[in-house]
Each structure stands twice: as C-alpha cells, then as structure tokens.
C-alpha cells in the first residue's frame, strides 16, 4: 500500500452494507443458542502484592460451550469500579504491555478463544483459527469470538465489585471488530475505543491487508478456489461494517496512514458508517502502533470522561 498523508484519499470510503437477507435472523438465532449455555463464571484471586489492583483469573462458558478466559484488575479499596473491557488483536495477546493504567478503573483483559492463558506466552506462528469452519457460518471461529465479547458483559455484571451500568471497550485490530459487535448488541451504554480496528470492509481488506488473519484466509482461498464465492458470502456475516450503524456510541478511533495491517481506507470505511458521536485520531506517519502509549493514555482519559458524563 502506498504511503501517503493525504487525508481525503482515505476518508472518502463509504462502501455499501452487504448484509445477507437472513443476517438479522442469523444473529438472533445465535443469541438464542448462547442463552441456552450456562455462564459458569469463576473469579479466582491472584496474589498481587503491593499492586494498586486486585487481580482475578476469570473463566466462563462461551459459544460452543468453550471455556473463555481473561484477567480482571480491580482497584484496591474501590467498592464499585467503572469497567473497561480490553480485547487484543489476533495472535497478539498483549498489545498494551507495560502501558500505565489509571488506578481508578477496573480492566478486564479478554483473551480471544484459542490464545494463550499466561502473560509470558507469546505467539510464534499464525494459529490458523481464521479458517476454522469458515465454510459454515454457524461453526465459524469469529461467531464464537463475537459472542464471547457480548457474554463478557453478563459475566462482569456478576461481580459485585464492578459497576457495569455502562461499559467501556478498547479493541485492538480484530479485537476492535469484536468490540463493535458487542456494543451494537448491548442494551447498556457503551463507549468504544477502536485502536486501528480490522476485519472491516473485508472485500477491500482481503486484498490489501498484511495481517495474519488476512493471510490465513487468503491462503485457504488459494487452495480452495471453487469456494471463493461461498467464503465471501460467509464473511459478510462478520464484517464489522455491517454492525457499525447499530452502535449508539460514543466512539474514538485511531488510525495510522502507514498501517498495512489495518489499512486506513478500511478503518475510515468503518468510521464513516458510525452514526453516533465519533472522533478519529489520525497519525499520518505511524503504522499499526498509531499513537503508542501516549494515545492509550488519551483513550483511557476519554473513557473516564464518558463515565463521568453519565
């Protein structure tokens, strides 16, 4: 992708929705199926001496009865903490490692299904989840990822140290798409930080993105050429753009014009379909780390202002 600082070149993307006729019925049935699965939440304390947070290892049952895990940090001594859910990118479980956290907010770091359970476990190769049951929308990996993100809200509501009357989300890359889905299907006020979101505007992204998720799907298609039309149709059920106009907001985006993993034209296509209050932080000279730690700090402050406005 050519490197450019031309804002207009990227901003002018507003592709049409490509929802299939049974799009809404598919997701309605998906939620009905999820509701039949017991949550079975577990909050296991972890020793965190001299930390400003109490930490808990969290497990619950997600779609397909899979065990979903994450780490919950709750400010010490705070009775009811506002809560931010952080969803990492595909095969990159610790995008904000070492970044400082505001000590007045609780954070739940949701692990995408199939990813490592320990902070020291870093990926070595692309795991292949993005083509897991890709020919069957009902069994597809991303159906589980999206519904896990929604169930996270129900899980956190069961912890009496958290105030989940409103929820904040920070989604990085593929985690941004999951956050969009969760917000679009939540009855609670939500605020979204979409940090270089991906899995949006897939007809374009699949041609230009250098992400591992894109590479897995394209490699599969290169070996299954006769299934290309079917796969394109199936992916439309999971394209983040198709949920964008259902988010009540507000939303804060970040984008880097040198980003080849989450291409800026795809980020802007998603941004342009949001109808809620929205802001985008543009970094003309940055790639996928757009803004880095400084932008993360700004994003946390933005979420605090959202909570304080309620």
Write a concise synopsis of the structure shown.
This protein is 34% helix and 21% strand. It is of the alpha/beta class.
Order of helices and strands: HHEEEEEHEHEHHHHEHEH
| Major β-sheet annotation | 9 strands, mixed
Task: Give the CATH superfamily.
Answer: Alpha/Beta hydrolase fold, catalytic domain
What's the multimeric state? single chain
Percent of residues in β-strands? 15-25%
Given the C-alpha coordinates, what overall shape results? globular
| Total of domains | 1
Distance between the first and last residues' Cα: 42 Å
Instruction: Please identify, by name, the CATH architecture.
Output: 3-Layer(aba) Sandwich
Contiguous uncertain segments of 5+ residues: 1-5
Rg over alpha carbons: 18 Å
CATH class category name:
Alpha Beta
CATH level 3 topology = Rossmann fold
Report the total helices.
10
Question: What structural class should be given to the helix and strand makeup?
Answer: alpha/beta
Physical arrangement of strands within the biggest beta sheet:
1-2-3-5-4-6-7-8-9
Number of strands: 9
Your description of this structure?
- The chain has 310 residues and is α/β, with parallel strands linked by helices.
- It has one domain: Alpha/Beta hydrolase fold, catalytic domain (Rossmann fold, 3-Layer(aba) Sandwich), CATH 3.40.50.1820.
- Helices cover 34% and strands 21% of the residues.
- It has 10 helices and 9 strands.
- The chain has helices spanning 7-11, 23-35, 141-157, 174-184, 202-208, 212-223, 228-235, 241-244, 264-273, 292-309, and strands at 42-46, 53-61, 67-75, 81-87, 106-110, 162-172, 190-195, 251-256, 278-283.
- Strand 8 (251-256), helix 9 and strand 9 (278-283) form a beta-alpha-beta unit.
- Residues 1-5 have low confidence and may be disordered.
């Amino acid at each position: 992708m050519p490197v450019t600082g031309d804002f207009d070149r990227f901003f002018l993307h507003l592709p049409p929705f490509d929802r299939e006729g049974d799009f809404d019925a598919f997701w309605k049935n998906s939620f009905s199926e999820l509701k039949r699965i017991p949550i079975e939440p577990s909050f296991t304390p972890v020793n965190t001496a001299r930390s400003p947070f109490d930490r808990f290892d969290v497990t619950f049952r997600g779609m397909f009865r899979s065990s979903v895990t994450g780490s919950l940090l709750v400010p010490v001594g705070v009775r009811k903490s506002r809560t931010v859910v952080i969803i990492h990118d595909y095969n990159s479980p610790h995008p904000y490692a070492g970044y400082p956290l505001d000590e007045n907010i609780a954070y739940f770091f949701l692990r995408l299904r199939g990813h490592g359970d320990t902070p020291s476990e870093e990926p070595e190769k692309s795991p292949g989840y993005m083509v897991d049951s890709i020919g069957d929308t009902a069994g597809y990996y991303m159906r589980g990822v999206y519904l896990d993100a929604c169930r996270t809200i129900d899980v956190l509501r069961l912890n009496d140290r958290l105030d989940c009357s409103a929820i904040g989300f920070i989604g990085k890359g593929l985690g941004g798409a999951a956050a969009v889905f969760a917000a679009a299907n939540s009855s609670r006020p939500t605020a979204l930080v979409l940090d270089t979101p991906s899995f949006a505007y897939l007809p374009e992204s699949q041609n230009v993105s250098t992400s591992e998720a894109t590479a897995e799907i394209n490699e599969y298609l290169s070996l299954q050429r006769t299934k290309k039309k079917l796969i394109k149709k199936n992916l439309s059920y999971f394209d983040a753009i198709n949920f964008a106009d259902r988010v009540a907001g507000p939303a804060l985006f970040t984008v880097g014009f040198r980003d080849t993993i989450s291409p800026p034209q795809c980020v802007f296509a998603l941004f342009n379909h949001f109808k809620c209050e929205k802001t985008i932080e543009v970094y003309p000279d940055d790639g996928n780390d757009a803004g880095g730690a400084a932008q993360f700090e700004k994003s946390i402050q933005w979420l605090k202002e959202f909570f304080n406005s309620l």
